[in-house]
Design goal:
heterodimer; A: mainly alpha; globular; B: Rossmann fold; 2 domains; six-stranded mixed β-sheet; 10 strands
């Protein structure tokens, strides 16, 4: 049995690490989405975290922990700098502005050869990231998200998401809360980039483009933004699916796309809403709510 | 608790050339109920939105107990002790009644984010106190038994009570009620009138926007009547109701109103 577990981890450790890394980033986006910020800045934040941490370990000779912290901090500072003007924008304009940030970061990474290695990227990065680092990072972020959700901060953020006029009128500083969440999201994505860089031996500008930002947004949305486990479920699902569909290389992308469309169409609350359909307790509660609503309307 | 005195001096608001509020001045005396009446489109809600900071006033001054409110964002106005309800009820429908009212306690929380994350005992105590206060507020307005029900499942009248409870949870010095009786039946309006008098008796200054002239007359110490963005009459309920300008505004002169 023990040997079996060891073998399991040996053969699947890469995919486990990837699941954890994507979960971490999914929680970064979860924080942003919890105040309606559909951010495409993830690629940019991850690039800043990755290049900065690699510079710290490979050029400055810092040890791993401060390097990751420096990368995350740089991404958080960038989030603060772009957040102040960009958070005033709504919906699609916010998305475009954050996308522009990711593009600018990518172009800088492509051209600043002395630091980033240009289009060739940086090779033979020491592999410092271990699975338990990723587990710890995800656990810390989940703890923070869980604790905040149950506090008056969580109530304020939920109000901002549903009706920011109400939130303001009850004394919630909407801008400060959104900025803080955006900075936290930047910090987590920066840390994710730093951990990814020291996991993969290699980073290049192409790793952190629009595709990365869109994927990161997909995880929590597929998993469900209303449940704490949503980002984890979404990230693991999206990471494992291509592996499971390996039997058909051609069909893989098509099946993947079809599944995403199906979830968005039939489970608008994300994959976590399946649990609601299956739990008898939840169903009973909903029936009661429906009855109460009917009664209230009649 | 002592209510705050609200002074509004010649405030004005235009929306792309359309004059919503031309020039309005009135005083809501500390601890009193001031009624703000007028036909649809006379500028009542716009006035309220300017007082709460949702719309910046184009001109004029808004002063609360000597402190100017102009130019302050809504959350700062709320922090000065101003709470409100909305004409088109704005509750978080999926959340419980209690959770909605708890949002009103936001400004009362003193524990910082680090204390919350460290789960210090003070955080739980503060949360329990806030919850206890909200539950007793719900009892006071008569919907204590609905605390755990999703707000979206409530009747119209009960939703209005949740809105009032949420505003009261903020411990306001000035409470703005925007058409709280809209959609209520006669007995609900009676109860609402009692509730407003009770709130006023606790010392809170109330500014009441309302169409139901009987309700306004019953609870108000002072009534201001608006039409076309200007005040056309002001005084005690009896004075305002007998004012020819008010009768004309509501009933019209030669044509239909």
């Amino acid at each position: 049995m023990n040997a079996w577990i060891t073998q399991f981890f040996a053969s699947y450790s890469n995919i486990i690490d990837l699941c954890l890394l994507n979960s971490l980033i999914a929680y970064g986006l979860f924080l942003a989405l919890s105040a309606n910020m559909f951010s495409l800045a993830t690629g940019g934040f991850m690039a800043l975290g990755a290049y900065c941490s690699v510079y710290c370990t490979m050029v400055l000779g810092l040890s791993f922990a401060p390097a990751v912290f420096a990368g995350a901090l740089l991404a958080a500072l960038a989030a603060a700098a772009i957040g102040v003007p960009v958070l005033r924008l709504r919906g699609d304009y916010f998305m475009l502005a954050t996308f522009a940030f990711t593009e600018v970061t990518r172009v800088v990474a492509l051209n600043w050869e002395s630091v980033t290695g240009g289009a060739i990227g940086i090779f033979s990065i020491p592999r410092y990231t271990e699975t338990w680092h990723l587990v710890l990072a995800v656990a810390v972020v989940v703890y923070i998200a869980h604790t905040l959700r149950r506090s008056y901060f969580g109530r304020a953020i939920a109000a901002i998401k549903q009706d920011d006029v109400v939130a303001q009128s009850m004394g919630v500083n909407v801008f400060a809360h959104r900025l803080a969440l955006f900075i936290a999201s930047g910090f987590i994505c920066g840390a994710g980039g730093a951990l990814a860089a020291h996991l993969n031996y290699f980073i290049g500008p192409g790793d952190f483009g629009l595709a990365r930002s869109v994927d990161a947004l997909t995880y929590p949305i597929l998993g469900g933004v209303n449940a704490l486990a949503g980002p984890l479920v979404g990230a693991i699902f999206t990471t494992l699916l291509p592996e499971v569909l390996r039997f058909s290389n051609q069909l893989r992308e098509i099946l993947m796309g079809a599944l995403v469309v199906a979830i968005v169409l039939y489970l608008p609350g994300g994959a976590m809403s399946i649990l609601k359909l299956r739990w008898p307790g939840a169903t009973a509660r909903e029936t009661k709510l429906a009855a109460a609503t009917e009664q209230a309307q009649s | 608790m002592i209510g705050a005195k609200l002074e509004v001096w010649q405030i004005a608001k235009r929306f792309q050339g359309i004059v919503a509020v031309d020039s309005i001045s009135f005083v809501a005396g500390a601890g009193r109920v001031t009624g703000l009446i007028g036909p649809n489109g006379s500028g009542k809600t716009t006035t309220m939105n300017m007082i709460t900071g949702l719309y910046p006033a184009d001109a004029g001054r808004i002063v609360l107990d000597g402190v100017p409110l102009n130019g302050r964002p809504p959350h700062q106005v709320a922090a000065r002790g101003v709470a409100r309800t909305f004409q088109n009820i704005r509750l978080l429908a999926g959340q419980s009644v209690l959770a909605n009212v708890m949002l009103g306690t936001h400004l009362g929380h003193r524990q910082g984010i680090l204390a919350v994350l460290a789960r210090l005992p003070g955080v739980a105590r503060e949360e329990r106190e806030a919850e206890g206060r909200c539950l007793s507020l719900l009892d006071e307005v008569g919907i204590g038994h609905l605390a755990r029900v999703p707000a979206g499942a409530l009747s119209y009248g009960d939703r209005r009570r949740v809105e009032i409870s949420r505003a009261l949870a903020a411990r306001p010095r000035l409470l703005l009620l925007d058409e709280p009786a809209a959609g209520m039946n006669h007995s609900e309006k009676e109860q609402l009138g009692d509730l407003i008098l009770q709130i006023s008796a606790s010392g809170v200054t109330v500014l009441l926007i309302e169409h139901d002239i009987d309700l306004v007359s019953r609870v108000s110490d002072h009534i201001v009547c608006l039409n076309f963005g200007r005040e056309i009459a002001e005084g005690t309920p009896a004075e305002v109701r007998s004012s020819p300008a008010v009768i004309e505004a509501y009933l019209g002169r030669d044509e239909d109103a």
